[in-house]
Design a protein that fits this description.
TATA-Binding Protein, single chain, 6-stranded antiparallel beta sheet, binds S-adenosylmethionine, alpha/beta, 2 domains
Length: 468
Amino acid sequence: MLSRKRRREAPPSIHPRNRYAEKRLDFSHLASLYPSFNPYVFSSSSGHSTIDWTDFNATRELTRILLLHDHGVHWWIPDEQLCPTVPNRSNYIHWIEDLLSSGLILAKNDGSKGTVRGFDIGTGANCIYPLLGASLLGWSFVGSDVTNVALEWAAKNVESNPHLWELIEIRNANDSNRSERIVMEKTENSDQELEGSSTQQSPILVGVVKGGENFDFCMCNPPFFESIEEAGLNPKTSCGGTPEEMVYPGGERAFITRIIDDSVQLKHSFRWFTSMVGRKVNLKFLISKLREVGVSVVQTTEFVQGRTARWGLAWSFMPPNKSSITSNAPNRSHLGSFTVEGLKRQYGAFQILKSVESFFKDNGVSFKSDSSSFSVDVALSNDQMNTLPVNGLNESSISAADQSSNVLTKPCVFRVLVFEQMPGTVLVRWSPLEKDSQFIGLFLHLFNQLEEFLKKEFNSKTHFVCGK
Ligand SMILES: C[S@@+](CC[C@H](N)C(=O)[O-])C[C@H]1O[C@@H](n2cnc3c(N)ncnc32)[C@H](O)[C@@H]1O
């Protein structure tokens, strides 16, 4: 029944709500609308119009016209500054949107309902995250930075967009209200002085966040590299990037560790702390650091950007919203979950969700899938009960309620949720949506089959976490 091999879908390179998810960019159409872009567009060997991704001027002009055309944002950066690509940066914004609506932590109760407020650590000259978050979703932002050029150009980019003035504040992290500055410890790599950098460690959140301020989230595309040599240049693209933007003593591991340390002090001021992470080995290190400091929730995601992979790491100290998981369930013993571990790099929650859908489809079970919340609602109606395969069902897997009733008065609905715990590990959890669910035993049986199916499908080991 379940042995049929089906082709796996390619890993998602773009968030489903990203406006560039549906169709590839039509460079020749954009060039016809924006003559300044025309000189950069040519036909590739496959016949598609394209640009030279190694040409900084071409990528900057593309970003400028996409922000204008699709977001109504006027934008520019000086030569050599880090040039963001709009589709890639939009993915991070949409992931935060998912976190905020996930219900994983308790909703805020401060009367500010509806107004989302974010803090972008290291907004850069390009100020890309506040510009996207404000224009796409109406979020308000504080964008911080430490270099003069970043602060000056981020402010210019806000000034060029009067409709966003109210929503974006640019803040110099060095204008901290904390008088004492920590003298940077000399590390092996700090012998190499960065041009224009301070020998003191600039504050990141503590001291930059003002007393009484509250944010829904912070985000950060950190300086990833430990040295200028390591930053190097990707010969396949030219996104610019000065040493001040790309390099930090100790690299991203040290920078994000400081965000974690600050988050402990500011645990009540932010609902979610988030950062991009460039290296998987650092992701593992940072997750264990988060466990040490006692966060209540950790979430990760993978951003596939062309040939590079980046991870998103999110954590919170807010109480987890247990009710979203248990309130509709008759009791905890009727919850079940397992993890699918050791997944290959290209597989994650999205592919597991697709396989969960295939499983129920193949078994003739009605379901409704929501890829934004990574959930599948499965409804067992009377008709479907009769068509379900019951081979292997034994008495112990059928509850008393199942045995005493062969008739479902209304469809019995269960929710299956798929969570990416960290790259390579996905948690699959199910629970009934009604208090008096019938046929729990039958669903448990079905769920055990699902577990077996996923194990075979992804050639992975599964680990049962809880449930009957
Ligand atoms: C990789 S760039 C990211 C720029 C932009 N957010 C983007 O995604 O393109 C990192 C930025 O962090 C800034 N930065 C470094 N230390 C900082 C600190 N302590 N507080 C705020 N920004 C900082 C750098 O100046 C740089 O602009």
